[in-house]
Amino acid sequence: MSGHSKWSSIKRQKSINDQKRGKTFTKLANAITIAVKQGGGIAFPDSNFRLRLAIDAARAANMPKDNIERALRRAQGKQAEDFEEVIYEGFAPGGVSVIVEAFTDNPLRTTSEIKSIFHKAGASFGQPGSVSYQFKHVGEIIIKKNGKSYDDIFAIAVESGAEDLEDAGDEVLIYTDLPDLAKVKDALAAQGLEVVEAGLVRQPVVTTAITDKEKFDKIEAFLNTLEELDDVQKVYSNMDVSL
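Now predict its structure.
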């Protein structure tokens, strides 16, 4: 079990700040659209688990109901036909491995923008497979502590079938095998824990230690610039921060 992770705390705080600024609405709408497309056109969350996760995330970010319904209509219309998921891999300044997930209706534009960000930051744009082996697909459930200790939540999570945990300040990140995500999420909620959000993520299995503040600031700025693109859904790194 991972225990405390400073980088996890930093990432979660940034995500919370982005939600407060409403920056995520475009990304959330894109996630809904791609979930319907990848789910064979099924636009009903009870029959499309990925769509259910996308809608839950939208609601958690206080995305208006009209926006959600608009994204569902778009997903079932002609506009969604050219919409696709594209994955980019590479290395941030300092050698940290990076994976970028993007949803776009114009892959040439998105690729050009992302390559430009890599180039300006002195990062290395990689080929498919260059770093993906350093990550694994897992389910992630974010739990609000609400006065409970990490050890309390640890015990409940393990009993519920969790594979790994990370302490992230006021929250705990709980990881599961992909097929177990829904079951563990429901078990945690049944134990009275507040589930902030749940989804599918890439968890690093090989990490790169960063102990220099200046190097960390440069890497963080690079990752933030990538995340600010509307087409970019998620950015993952294998950075292990110890400052």
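The chain has a mean pLDDT of 88.
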